[in-house]
């Protein structure tokens, strides 16, 4: 992949990938940092990677793994209060976004990933299964359970709006 192709991939994919990783980890700054780091790693390995096969999937997986790694480090840091200060957010999300993010965070990780990949990343069930390394039946079950839990968690919010 040459520099122009890489630049196009970056400009077409960066914001989308940030949104996807944000939906999985719940921290916009971390999502931006992890996607940026994934692109840096992709550039460093551009000659070894198979760019004909979905470079976004490689970037998303790399960014997600970075986010998980950072989350684990942050969790360990919580044991020491002086290191556990998170920067204050500079944006104000809509009430719907807050409700969806809170509901997503209550899902088990495997269900949350399946929901985000399928509904936010627009991946087919087969593509989700390939990316997470699970059979399609498992992905379908995770999607069904995740949707049911989200419907239950978000139902209270919907009733308030209709009242």
Task: Give the structure's gist in a few sentences.
With 163 residues, the protein is mostly helical.
Q: Assign the CATH topology of the largest domain.
A: Rna Polymerase Sigma Factor, Chain: A
SSE order: HHHHHHH
In whole angstroms, the N-to-C terminal distance is 55 Å
Rg, nearest Å: 17 Å
Summarize the structure in words.
By secondary structure, the chain is mostly helical. It has 2 domains: 1-90, RNA polymerase sigma factor, region 2, helix turn helix motif (Rna Polymerase Sigma Factor, Chain: A, Orthogonal Bundle); 92-163, Arc Repressor Mutant, subunit A (Orthogonal Bundle), CATH 1.10.10.10. The chain has helices spanning 3-25, 28-44, 55-77, 95-106, 109-120, 125-132, 136-162.
Keywords:
mainly alpha; 7 helices; 2 domains; Arc Repressor Mutant, subunit A; about 160 residues; Rna Polymerase Sigma Factor, Chain: A; globular
Topology diagram in text:
Blueprint: H1 3-25, H2 28-44, H3 55-77, H4 95-106, H5 109-120, H6 125-132, H7 136-162
Helix pairs in contact: 1-2, 1-3, 1-5, 2-3, 4-7, 5-6, 5-7, 6-7
